[in-house]
Amino acid sequence: MSEEASSPDGSGKVCRVIRIGTRKSQLARIQTDSVAAKLKELNPDINLEIVAMSTIGDKILDTALSKIGEKSLFTKELENALERNEVDLVVHSLKDLPTTLPSGFTIGAVLKRENPHDAVVLHPKHIGKTLETLPDNSVIGTSSLRRAAQLKKRFSHLEFKDIRGNLNTRLKKLDEKADFAAIILAAAGLRRMGWDNRISQILGPEDCMYAVGQGALAVEVRARDADILEMVSVLHDPDTVLRCIAERAFLRHLEGGCSVPVAVHTEVKDSQLYLTGAVYSLDGSDSLKETMQTCIAADDKSIEEVDEQFQRVGVTASKISGEAQDRAERLGIDLANLLLSKGAKEILTVARQLNDAR
User: Fold this and answer.
1) What is the pTM of this model?
2) Which subcellular locations apply to this protein (predicted)?
3) Active site includes 96?
């Protein structure tokens, strides 16, 4: 459990120290600080301590993420610290969290989603252009099979190459060398870093659908820590929770992950949750894409007991209608089944084999 410590104001009042685990990158720290600020505002009597650490994904920088073959690239070390009681909660980008969490952990909060779309960042010499107007054979940097598969099909005059590293590193590689005409990054990360001015183009769903959970922050906790779960649960954004439960259920049922191109788009409108999901071959030439919807205006407003058994694709959200969450999860499963019935498994199997062989 968390430590008890005397407050620094000398009043002798005992206040709790909550330790928050995070990755060491600048973006991870900014994201964690934003969550810490919200928790402090809601719980003025707690002291927060940030514990930063490096993950496998931070250390292996010369290999494409999809080739490393580890599902918890950016989360394992943080979860190890959580298991050893070295931290009380961990802040992640939700898209980094596998759809099945290790036993004993749960996502206690999914915060309001930033823009989930991908953004084009151009080399300074191409400012003013778009992916469409870039010269033939221009090289675009992306470490994502999902982005490359969609964009290869849509912009066949461009070439796509892997680029690794955190946001700062990738921008430096773009600006200081002539290797890339542009790179594709999540708009959310650029905005959180205050680099909106580097966004040349936001890619809409017709060009590039986003990754499951993209743009949302998640707070992972020990499932047994009812008090911590209660404390972070107020950070849940209901629409984001329902969208991400549907997305994660879709991905889990497809058995997708980093090593296959799977993309989604969700929207909540007039009490309806819309989910579009797609799978692609590595070069984008073969794809399946469908949309389904469900009503999330639940009749049952009862509050569930906080308990690990109420997790839905790793998320515990006891203050959001259980019926609405069930419908969101079912939507994801139903859409996955629809794509599987049309041959999604074959497309993903080939994509996985080709990626392994690269």
Assistant:
1) 0.89
2) Cytoplasm, Cytosol
3) yes
